[in-house]
Specification:
InterPro entries: Homeodomain-like_sf, Myb_dom, Myb_TF_plants, SANT/Myb. By secondary structure, this protein is mainly alpha-helical. The protein contains twelve helices and six strands. The chain binds a DNA duplex through helix 3 and helix 6.
DNA sequence: AATTGGCCCAACCGCTCCGAA
DNA sequence: ATTCGGAGCGGTTGGGCCAAT
Protein backbone atom coordinates (compact mmCIF):
# COMPACT_ATOMS: atom_id res chain seq x y z
CA UNK A 1 0.00 0.00 0.00
CA UNK A 2 2.71 2.33 0.90
CA UNK A 3 2.05 5.21 3.10
CA UNK A 4 3.69 8.52 3.65
CA UNK A 5 5.85 9.14 6.67
CA UNK A 6 4.07 9.73 9.91
CA UNK A 7 4.99 13.34 9.77
CA UNK A 8 5.63 15.89 7.12
CA UNK A 9 9.23 16.76 6.79
CA UNK A 10 8.58 20.45 6.80
CA UNK A 11 8.77 22.10 10.18
CA UNK A 12 9.52 18.96 12.08
CA UNK A 13 12.50 19.15 14.31
CA UNK A 14 14.94 16.29 14.38
CA UNK A 15 17.94 15.41 16.41
CA UNK A 16 18.58 15.39 20.12
CA UNK A 17 15.88 16.50 22.47
CA UNK A 18 16.47 19.49 24.65
CA UNK A 19 15.61 19.55 28.35
CA UNK A 20 12.89 22.06 27.58
CA UNK A 21 11.28 19.70 25.12
CA UNK A 22 11.54 16.88 27.57
CA UNK A 23 9.80 18.87 30.24
CA UNK A 24 7.04 19.85 27.87
CA UNK A 25 6.54 16.26 26.85
CA UNK A 26 6.61 14.90 30.37
CA UNK A 27 4.25 17.59 31.57
CA UNK A 28 1.81 16.73 28.85
CA UNK A 29 1.97 13.03 29.56
CA UNK A 30 1.58 13.72 33.22
CA UNK A 31 -1.71 15.36 32.49
CA UNK A 32 -2.98 13.18 29.71
CA UNK A 33 -1.13 9.94 30.05
CA UNK A 34 0.89 8.31 27.33
CA UNK A 35 -0.87 7.43 24.15
CA UNK A 36 -2.60 9.31 21.40
CA UNK A 37 0.80 10.34 20.22
CA UNK A 38 -0.63 12.02 17.21
CA UNK A 39 -2.11 14.63 19.47
CA UNK A 40 1.02 15.22 21.47
CA UNK A 41 2.87 17.58 19.13
CA UNK A 42 -0.37 19.30 18.29
CA UNK A 43 -1.35 19.96 21.86
CA UNK A 44 2.09 20.70 23.19
CA UNK A 45 3.43 22.78 20.36
CA UNK A 46 6.45 20.57 20.12
CA UNK A 47 7.95 20.63 16.69
CA UNK A 48 8.37 16.89 16.76
CA UNK A 49 6.51 14.15 15.02
CA UNK A 50 4.33 11.87 17.06
CA UNK A 51 6.69 9.02 16.59
CA UNK A 52 9.58 10.98 17.93
CA UNK A 53 7.55 11.90 20.99
CA UNK A 54 6.61 8.31 21.61
CA UNK A 55 10.17 7.10 21.25
CA UNK A 56 11.49 9.80 23.49
CA UNK A 57 9.02 8.82 26.14
CA UNK A 58 9.35 5.07 25.91
CA UNK A 59 13.11 4.97 25.57
CA UNK A 60 14.17 7.78 27.79
CA UNK A 61 11.67 9.71 29.81
CA UNK A 62 9.27 7.26 31.28
CA UNK A 63 9.81 6.32 34.90
CA UNK A 64 11.49 3.14 35.91
CA UNK A 65 14.14 3.04 33.25
CA UNK A 66 17.45 1.78 34.44
CA UNK A 67 20.49 3.02 32.67
CA UNK A 68 24.08 2.09 32.84
CA UNK A 69 25.91 -1.17 32.60
CA UNK A 70 24.12 -4.42 32.17
CA UNK A 71 24.77 -7.03 34.79
CA UNK A 72 26.02 -10.46 33.89
CA UNK A 73 22.65 -11.78 34.89
CA UNK A 74 20.95 -9.44 32.50
CA UNK A 75 23.40 -10.44 29.82
CA UNK A 76 22.55 -14.05 30.38
CA UNK A 77 18.89 -13.33 30.13
CA UNK A 78 19.32 -11.40 26.93
CA UNK A 79 21.48 -14.01 25.29
CA UNK A 80 19.16 -16.77 26.29
CA UNK A 81 16.03 -15.02 25.19
CA UNK A 82 17.62 -13.89 21.98
CA UNK A 83 18.36 -17.47 21.16
CA UNK A 84 14.78 -18.34 21.86
CA UNK A 85 12.97 -15.39 20.40
CA UNK A 86 15.35 -13.99 17.86
CA UNK A 87 15.63 -10.27 17.56
CA UNK A 88 12.36 -9.65 19.30
CA UNK A 89 13.72 -6.90 21.40
CA UNK A 90 10.40 -5.76 22.73
CA UNK A 91 9.58 -9.26 23.87
CA UNK A 92 12.99 -9.66 25.41
CA UNK A 93 12.62 -6.31 27.10
CA UNK A 94 9.47 -7.55 28.76
CA UNK A 95 11.67 -9.75 30.87
CA UNK A 96 13.88 -6.87 31.80
CA UNK A 97 11.35 -4.29 32.88
CA UNK A 98 13.88 -1.65 33.63
CA UNK A 99 15.49 -1.84 30.24
CA UNK A 100 14.10 -0.57 27.01
CA UNK A 101 14.06 -2.59 23.87
CA UNK A 102 16.30 0.00 22.32
CA UNK A 103 18.82 -0.39 25.08
CA UNK A 104 18.78 -4.12 24.81
CA UNK A 105 19.09 -3.96 21.07
CA UNK A 106 22.02 -1.59 21.32
CA UNK A 107 23.68 -3.69 23.95
CA UNK A 108 23.25 -6.78 21.89
CA UNK A 109 24.65 -5.18 18.79
CA UNK A 110 27.58 -3.53 20.50
CA UNK A 111 28.53 -6.04 23.14
CA UNK A 112 26.89 -9.38 23.20
CA UNK A 113 27.06 -10.12 19.51
CA UNK A 114 30.76 -9.50 19.58
CA UNK A 115 31.19 -11.64 22.62
CA UNK A 116 29.40 -14.52 21.04
CA UNK A 117 31.28 -14.10 17.82
CA UNK A 118 34.53 -14.05 19.65
CA UNK A 119 33.57 -17.07 21.59
CA UNK A 120 32.64 -18.98 18.48
CA UNK A 121 35.85 -17.97 16.82
CA UNK A 122 37.79 -19.16 19.79
CA UNK A 123 36.98 -22.70 19.20
CA UNK A 124 33.36 -23.42 19.45
CA UNK A 125 33.85 -26.15 21.90
CA UNK A 126 30.23 -25.86 22.73
CA UNK A 127 27.37 -26.75 20.54
CA UNK A 128 26.12 -23.74 18.63
CA UNK A 129 22.83 -22.28 19.73
CA UNK A 130 19.80 -23.07 17.66
CA UNK A 131 19.08 -20.68 14.86
CA UNK A 132 16.84 -17.80 15.74
CA UNK A 133 13.21 -18.69 15.29
CA UNK A 134 12.82 -16.12 12.60
CA UNK A 135 15.29 -17.92 10.44
CA UNK A 136 12.98 -20.77 9.89
CA UNK A 137 9.36 -21.02 10.65
CA UNK A 138 9.57 -24.73 10.45
CA UNK A 139 12.29 -25.17 12.94
CA UNK A 140 10.81 -26.44 16.10
CA UNK A 141 12.38 -25.51 19.33
CA UNK A 142 11.30 -25.88 22.83
CA UNK A 143 10.34 -22.54 24.11
CA UNK A 144 10.02 -22.85 27.79
CA UNK A 145 7.97 -19.73 28.08
CA UNK A 146 4.24 -19.91 28.36
CA UNK A 147 3.61 -18.01 25.23
CA UNK A 148 0.97 -19.55 23.16
CA UNK A 149 0.21 -17.94 19.93
CA UNK A 150 -3.07 -17.57 18.29
CA UNK A 151 -3.00 -17.26 14.60
CA UNK A 152 -5.18 -14.24 14.50
CA UNK A 153 -3.87 -12.53 17.51
CA UNK A 154 -0.21 -12.68 17.31
CA UNK A 155 1.80 -10.83 14.77
CA UNK A 156 4.74 -13.06 15.35
CA UNK A 157 3.16 -16.31 14.50
CA UNK A 158 4.46 -16.08 10.98
CA UNK A 159 8.05 -16.20 11.82
CA UNK A 160 8.11 -17.78 14.86
CA UNK A 161 8.75 -19.23 17.66
CA UNK A 162 8.09 -22.64 16.55
CA UNK A 163 6.68 -25.11 18.83
CA UNK A 164 6.97 -28.43 20.12
CA UNK A 165 3.33 -28.63 19.49
CA UNK A 166 2.57 -31.61 21.58
CA UNK A 167 4.92 -31.06 24.38
CA UNK A 168 3.81 -29.56 27.58
CA UNK A 169 6.81 -28.33 29.37
CA UNK A 170 5.97 -28.52 33.01
CA UNK A 171 2.60 -27.07 32.42
CA UNK A 172 3.84 -24.47 30.07
CA UNK A 173 3.24 -24.29 26.43
CA UNK A 174 5.55 -23.53 23.67
CA UNK A 175 4.94 -20.78 21.25
CA UNK A 176 3.94 -21.96 17.89
CA UNK A 177 4.31 -20.65 14.41
CA UNK A 178 2.27 -23.27 12.77
CA UNK A 179 -1.26 -21.99 12.44
CA UNK A 180 -2.67 -25.45 12.35
CA UNK A 181 -0.96 -26.34 15.49
CA UNK A 182 -1.57 -23.02 17.07
CA UNK A 183 -5.26 -23.07 16.63
CA UNK A 184 -5.50 -26.40 18.29
CA UNK A 185 -4.27 -25.09 21.55
CA UNK A 186 -6.78 -23.47 23.71
CA UNK A 187 -5.06 -23.18 26.97
CA UNK A 188 -4.02 -19.94 28.43
CA UNK A 189 -1.58 -19.38 31.13
CA UNK A 190 -0.43 -16.14 32.50
CA UNK A 191 2.12 -15.50 35.03
CA UNK A 192 3.77 -12.46 36.26
CA UNK A 193 7.34 -12.22 35.29
CA UNK A 194 9.65 -12.31 38.22
CA UNK A 195 11.18 -9.20 36.87
CA UNK A 196 8.06 -7.25 37.29
CA UNK A 197 8.99 -7.14 40.89
CA UNK A 198 12.10 -5.33 40.00
CA UNK A 199 10.09 -2.71 38.27
CA UNK A 200 8.20 -1.96 41.39
CA UNK A 201 11.38 -0.73 42.87
CA UNK A 202 11.70 2.18 40.56
CA UNK A 203 12.81 4.43 43.28
CA UNK A 204 16.04 2.60 43.65
CA UNK A 205 16.83 2.27 40.01
CA UNK A 206 19.70 4.19 38.67
CA UNK A 207 18.53 6.58 36.05
CA UNK A 208 21.63 8.44 35.18
CA UNK A 209 21.23 10.98 32.50
CA UNK A 210 21.88 14.58 31.86
CA UNK A 211 18.30 15.24 32.70
CA UNK A 212 18.51 12.84 35.59
CA UNK A 213 15.08 11.55 35.17
CA UNK A 214 13.21 14.59 34.19
CA UNK A 215 10.01 12.98 35.14
CA UNK A 216 11.04 13.20 38.74
CA UNK A 217 11.34 16.90 38.46
CA UNK A 218 7.65 16.99 38.23
CA UNK A 219 6.04 16.53 41.55
CA UNK A 220 3.75 13.62 41.93
CA UNK A 221 4.47 12.39 38.50
CA UNK A 222 2.25 9.53 37.41
CA UNK A 223 0.34 9.73 40.60
CA UNK A 224 -2.19 12.32 39.79
CA UNK A 225 -2.90 11.17 36.30
CA UNK A 226 -4.98 8.05 35.91
CA UNK A 227 -3.62 5.41 33.63
CA UNK A 228 -5.04 5.39 30.17
CA UNK A 229 -5.60 2.62 27.75
CA UNK A 230 -2.14 3.09 26.44
CA UNK A 231 -0.38 3.20 29.72
CA UNK A 232 0.53 -0.37 29.31
CA UNK A 233 3.63 0.44 27.39
CA UNK A 234 5.75 1.57 30.28
CA UNK A 235 7.71 -1.25 31.72
CA UNK A 236 6.40 -0.55 35.14
CA UNK A 237 3.01 -1.73 34.12
CA UNK A 238 1.75 -5.17 34.75
CA UNK A 239 -1.11 -6.39 32.72
CA UNK A 240 -4.09 -7.58 34.58
CA UNK A 241 -5.99 -9.01 31.71
CA UNK A 242 -5.17 -12.65 31.21
CA UNK A 243 -6.64 -12.65 27.76
CA UNK A 244 -4.61 -9.90 26.39
CA UNK A 245 -2.54 -10.72 23.40
CA UNK A 246 1.17 -10.83 23.60
CA UNK A 247 1.83 -8.17 21.04
CA UNK A 248 0.07 -5.66 23.17
CA UNK A 249 2.10 -6.12 26.21
CA UNK A 250 5.59 -5.63 25.08
CA UNK A 251 7.28 -3.73 27.75
CA UNK A 252 5.43 -5.37 30.53
CA UNK A 253 6.63 -7.97 32.85
CA UNK A 254 3.93 -10.36 31.96
CA UNK A 255 3.96 -13.61 30.22
CA UNK A 256 0.99 -14.59 28.23
CA UNK A 257 -0.64 -17.25 26.25
CA UNK A 258 -3.70 -17.09 24.12
CA UNK A 259 -7.14 -18.41 23.90
CA UNK A 260 -8.19 -18.77 20.32
CA UNK A 261 -11.69 -17.65 19.84
CA UNK A 262 -11.68 -15.37 22.78
CA UNK A 263 -12.03 -11.82 21.69
CA UNK A 264 -8.95 -9.85 22.24
CA UNK A 265 -9.76 -7.40 24.91
CA UNK A 266 -8.59 -3.93 25.33
CA UNK A 267 -5.71 -3.74 27.61
CA UNK A 268 -6.45 -2.72 31.10
CA UNK A 269 -3.18 -1.65 32.45
CA UNK A 270 -2.36 -1.55 36.04
CA UNK A 271 0.23 0.97 36.85
CA UNK A 272 2.71 -0.65 39.10
CA UNK A 273 5.11 2.14 39.67
CA UNK A 274 3.18 2.94 42.76
CA UNK A 275 1.94 0.13 42.98
CA UNK A 276 -1.75 0.44 42.45
CA UNK A 277 -4.34 -1.94 41.18
CA UNK A 278 -7.39 -1.14 39.17
CA UNK A 279 -9.61 -2.88 41.62
CA UNK A 280 -9.78 -5.61 44.11
CA UNK A 281 -10.45 -8.24 41.51
CA UNK A 282 -7.31 -7.29 39.73
CA UNK A 283 -5.36 -7.44 42.90
CA UNK A 284 -6.62 -10.90 43.60
CA UNK A 285 -5.80 -11.89 40.10
CA UNK A 286 -2.29 -10.70 40.62
CA UNK A 287 -2.04 -12.71 43.79
CA UNK A 288 -3.27 -15.73 41.98
CA UNK A 289 -0.62 -15.27 39.39
CA UNK A 290 1.96 -15.14 42.06
CA UNK A 291 0.83 -18.46 43.31
CA UNK A 292 1.02 -20.16 39.98
CA UNK A 293 4.06 -22.28 39.40
CA UNK A 294 6.81 -20.79 37.40
CA UNK A 295 7.25 -22.05 33.94
CA UNK A 296 10.65 -23.12 32.93
CA UNK A 297 11.81 -19.96 31.29
CA UNK A 298 11.08 -18.07 34.40
CA UNK A 299 12.68 -20.76 36.41
CA UNK A 300 15.67 -20.33 34.29
CA UNK A 301 15.62 -16.66 34.85
CA UNK A 302 15.47 -17.16 38.52
CA UNK A 303 17.38 -20.21 39.38
CA UNK A 304 20.89 -21.27 39.39
CA UNK A 305 21.15 -21.48 35.68
CA UNK A 306 21.30 -17.75 35.51
CA UNK A 307 23.82 -17.68 38.24
CA UNK A 308 25.75 -20.29 36.43
CA UNK A 309 25.77 -18.11 33.42
CA UNK A 310 26.98 -15.19 35.40
CA UNK A 311 29.68 -17.22 37.06
CA UNK A 312 30.85 -18.79 33.90
CA UNK A 313 30.79 -15.51 32.09
CA UNK A 314 32.95 -14.07 34.76
CA UNK A 315 35.36 -16.91 34.58
CA UNK A 316 35.57 -17.14 30.88
CA UNK A 317 37.65 -14.96 28.71
CA UNK A 318 35.52 -12.39 27.07
CA UNK A 319 32.59 -13.15 29.18
CA UNK A 320 30.10 -15.53 27.74
CA UNK A 321 31.84 -18.45 26.26
CA UNK A 322 29.80 -20.81 28.27
CA UNK A 323 26.41 -19.60 27.36
CA UNK A 324 25.68 -22.18 24.73
CA UNK A 325 25.67 -24.69 27.50
CA UNK A 326 22.22 -23.53 28.17
CA UNK A 327 20.82 -24.70 24.95
C1' DA B 1 48.25 19.38 22.07
C1' DA B 2 46.23 17.73 17.94
C1' DT B 3 44.53 14.09 15.22
C1' DT B 4 42.43 9.82 14.31
C1' DG B 5 39.72 5.88 14.70
C1' DG B 6 36.60 3.09 17.20
C1' DC B 7 32.78 2.76 20.32
C1' DC B 8 28.38 3.85 22.09
C1' DC B 9 23.73 5.24 22.09
C1' DA B 10 19.90 8.36 21.08
C1' DA B 11 17.15 9.02 17.43
C1' DC B 12 15.43 8.32 12.81
C1' DC B 13 13.59 5.43 9.00
C1' DG B 14 10.81 2.13 6.97
C1' DC B 15 8.03 -1.57 7.49
C1' DT B 16 4.08 -4.28 9.45
C1' DC B 17 0.06 -4.81 12.14
C1' DC B 18 -4.34 -3.52 13.68
C1' DG B 19 -8.55 -1.10 14.21
C1' DA B 20 -11.79 2.21 12.49
C1' DA B 21 -14.32 4.13 8.78
C1' DA C 1 -13.78 -6.05 1.41
C1' DT C 2 -11.04 -2.16 1.10
C1' DT C 3 -8.70 1.91 2.53
C1' DC C 4 -6.52 4.75 5.74
C1' DG C 5 -4.18 6.30 9.76
C1' DG C 6 -2.10 5.38 14.31
C1' DA C 7 0.98 2.71 16.79
C1' DG C 8 4.71 -0.45 17.50
C1' DC C 9 8.88 -2.79 16.20
C1' DG C 10 13.46 -3.75 14.34
C1' DG C 11 17.26 -2.04 11.55
C1' DT C 12 20.26 1.58 10.75
C1' DT C 13 22.58 5.95 11.22
C1' DG C 14 25.10 9.88 12.79
C1' DG C 15 27.18 12.55 16.15
C1' DG C 16 29.47 12.83 20.55
C1' DC C 17 32.86 10.82 23.47
C1' DC C 18 37.19 8.78 24.52
C1' DA C 19 41.37 6.28 24.16
C1' DA C 20 45.35 5.56 21.35
C1' DT C 21 48.87 7.52 18.57
Amino acid sequence: MGRPPCCHKVGVKKGPWTPEEDIILVSYIQENGPGNWRAVPINTGLMRCSKSCRLRWTNYLRPGIRRGNFTTHEEGIIVHLQSLLGNRWAAIASYLPQRTDNDIKNYWNTHLKKKLKKQQAMGAIFAPPPPPPSSSAETAINLPGAVHLDNHHHRYHHDAIAASSSTVDHGCYAACSNPEVTQQHTTITMRRSPFADVAADCSSSSYASSMDNISRLLDGFMKSSPPTATDVKPNIAVVSDPFMSFDRISGTGTELAFVPGVQQQQQQPVLMGGISYDDEATRQQQQLHHQLPLCSIEKWLLDEAAEQVADLMDLSDGGCSSLPLLY
